[in-house]
Design goal:
Length: about 250
């Protein structure tokens, strides 16, 4: 398996890192991954082929020297930058954070992301290295909270239907408060926010793979109407359903 695509990284940056950052670091957590290195300013310094494809590009050179704000939607970029700053400020790793990340720029999917601080030879933190890997199947996202598996399965299979957070809690045998607490710990979001993102992902698939009217896509994916789905597209992906279809229709 290829690890870091070394030729895609400026050699002076990598040479400045200490031996641990260059040789071990993140690799203690590696499986099948998309891998990247960023400098202190958030610019990509190294990427592997899997990460290039995940971001929707063909060549690593298209990402190098650019920040997330130049490559993905502002809201997703804000989340990425917040985590980067946390790692660089505290010096503490973020391990296997469950999150939604872009696929082919606008579509989203569930991934587990790990980030570690990068140090130069003097011990100064000069950036972050990270990996992200897709959850397959979705229930793997439950991680150390098996109580969430039944909820994840139910949402994946029934996102087109109406149900409440209380309904989900009953299925898991939990109180609403406990379910919300576990979701917050695992996904850093509420169960309701999770449901909306699953529906959004389903809408992305239908828009790119079918010619159904947008109003029908909204209904099929559990949104109360086309207007609400359009609002969620704008809030989370900074685009409209029609613009997404125009860009990514198969």
């Amino acid at each position: 398996m290829k690890s870091v695509a070394a030729p895609l990284a400026p050699p002076d940056f990598l040479a400045s890192l200490d031996a641990t950052s260059r040789q071990l670091g993140l690799f203690g957590h590696i499986g099948d991954i998309s891998y990247f290195i960023k400098d202190r300013a958030g610019r990509y310094m190294a990427v592997n082929e899997a990460f290039v494809h995940l971001m929707g590009y063909r060549r690593g050179e298209e990402l190098l020297g650019h920040t997330d704000y130049e490559l993905i939607s502002p809201i997703l970029a804000d989340s990425c930058r917040m985590d980067d700053e946390q790692v660089m400020t505290t010096g503490k790793a973020i391990i296997n954070k469950a999150e939604l990340v872009p696929q082919n720029i606008l579509s989203v999917g569930w991934y587990a992301t790990t980030k570690l601080p990068l140090h130069d030879r003097s011990g100064r933190i000069v950036g972050v290295e990270g990996m992200t890997r897709e959850f397959k199947p979705a229930r793997g996202a439950a991680g150390p909270y098996p109580e969430l598996s039944s909820v994840i399965d139910y949402v994946e299979q029934n996102y087109a239907h109406r149900f409440s957070v209380a309904d989900l809690a009953r299925r898991a045998g939990l109180t609403v408060r406990t379910l919300e607490r576990l979701f917050s710990r695992r996904f850093s979001m509420t169960p309701f926010a999770y449901v909306k993102r699953v529906r959004l992902n389903a809408a992305c698939r239908q828009l790119s793979q079918s010619a159904l009217p947008i109003a029908q896509v909204a209904a099929d994916c559990g949104f109360c109407d086309q207007s609400y789905m359009t609002k969620e597209f704008g809030r989370l992906l900074r685009t409209t359903p029609q613009a997404y279809r125009d860009a990514y229709a198969l």
